[in-house]
Write a structure and sequence with these properties.
mainly alpha
Length: 381
């Protein structure tokens, strides 16, 4: 087997969450005469582990290079920074990424490159840290590292997420007019999402029209994510008609609805209290062979609770115990907070008993927050 085949095998095991088997396979590989430590191979493994939220394993693979007497290079640091940016807590992950970035500067063969800055620009956008974005751009200029399309997409995304649409448009102007860099689908998707959050539907729809009018497939053509972003923008404001229109355009463009598409539709229907349509959408998703996730469950629970459909919420929570992805603390807390808001103290008590039976216990702060509306005090730990 070639190295690429071994990587494919380990990646496949990762998708099945067989982490112990990954380590055993990797250890076996190290014992073979043909094995040669390769930073590129390790980099791919680290990124794969990061995407799977297995940060400890990503760090382990990074340290394994050092244990074998090799020096990590820029590609390995880039991979580990990427892994940390996948952390559940984005701010903690970003802080660790910055530490690694500063560490790179002290290493002779690990100087930050264009890829490093592009990764960090994207990370800055995730945490809406505009000051870091501007700092990285200034450093790139000092180091004579020329920003490319990915760099500008990161900056545009950062300003968009921060709601600074003026600066976002200025950056787009610089990229297109001054630097002669053509926008791609990622650029346009970022613009659509930013205008959607800013409720500037006129500009949002203008960007979408320009994408659909593009004749050259090499330019910014809509993809499945484009339509999902459009649907989500309308769904947030309960614009069900426009949401459904976006969905029909997606299907007309020969894109199949994915899990995210169905969740957006369910959120939109739930927002306006169209519970029957939301339920129908859920069953269509199941018929399409998609497994509901925690995000699916939470979207439906929020809708049921918003419209006081507590029996349906309880039934859904019971059904979810049989899903591959079982309910977690966040799912129970949606219902717990809703009961507390409606002063349904007996339901709160029964729900907390159910949570205890399945081994879920909210921390004291969260529990007290949920009960705050009718001033119950407790020492739940």
């Amino acid at each position: 087997m070639r190295q690429a085949d071994w990587f494919a095998l380990l990646a496949a095991l990762g998708k099945q969450s067989k982490w112990t088997l990954i380590l055993e396979t990797f250890r076996w590989m190290q014992e073979q005469k043909w094995y040669r430590l390769d930073n590129g191979f390790h980099s791919k493994l680290i990124v794969t582990m990061g995407k799977a939220k297995q940060l400890r394993m990503a760090v382990w693979f990074f340290k394994e290079v050092k244990r074998n007497g090799h020096r990590p290079d820029t590609s390995l640091y880039n991979a580990l920074i990427t892994a940390h940016l996948q952390a559940e807590d984005k701010r903690i992950g970003f802080a660790k990424a910055l530490q690694l970035f500063e560490e790179m500067k002290t290493k002779a063969n690990c100087k930050p490159d264009l890829v490093t800055y592009n990764i960090l620009l994207r990370g800055s956008a995730q945490v809406r840290d505009i000051l870091q974005v501007e700092r990285f751009f200034e450093e790139m200029e000092v180091e004579k590292i020329h920003p490319n399309l990915i760099s500008y997409n990161g900056v545009i995304g950062a300003y968009g997420k921060a709601g600074d649409l003026v600066q976002m448009e200025k950056t787009l102007f610089t990229m297109r007019i001054l630097k002669h860099i053509k926008p791609d689908t990622v650029t346009s998707n970022t613009l659509i999402e930013s205008y959607g959050y800013g409720r500037d539907f006129v500009k949002m729809e203008q960007v979408f029209k320009s994408m659909t009018a593009a004749k050259n497939k090499q330019t910014s053509r809509p993809d499945a994510k484009t339509y999902n972003i459009l649907m989500a923008s309308y769904a947030r404001l309960g614009e069900v008609g426009k949401m459904e229109w976006s969905c029909s355009r997606m299907e007309a463009a020969n894109f199949k609805l994915n899990l995210r598409s169905y969740e957006i539709l369910m959120t939109g229907y739930g927002e306006v209290g169209a519970i029957a349509s939301m339920s129908e959408c859920f069953y269509q998703m199941l018929q399409a062979g998609m497994q509901p996730q925690k995000s699916t469950l939470n979207a439906m629970l929020r809708a049921y609770c918003k419209h006081n459909c507590f029996e349906e919420a309880e039934e859904l929570l019971n059904d979810a115990l049989g899903w591959q992805t079982r309910p977690r603390t966040s799912s129970y807390l949606i219902l717990l907070r809703a009961y507390a808001k409606e002063r349904r103290s007996s339901d709160v008590e029964m729900l907390t008993e159910r949570m205890a039976k399945v081994g879920i216990a909210p921390c004291a702060a969260t529990f007290l927050e949920a009960l705050e509306s009718f001033s119950l005090s407790c020492g739940y730990n």
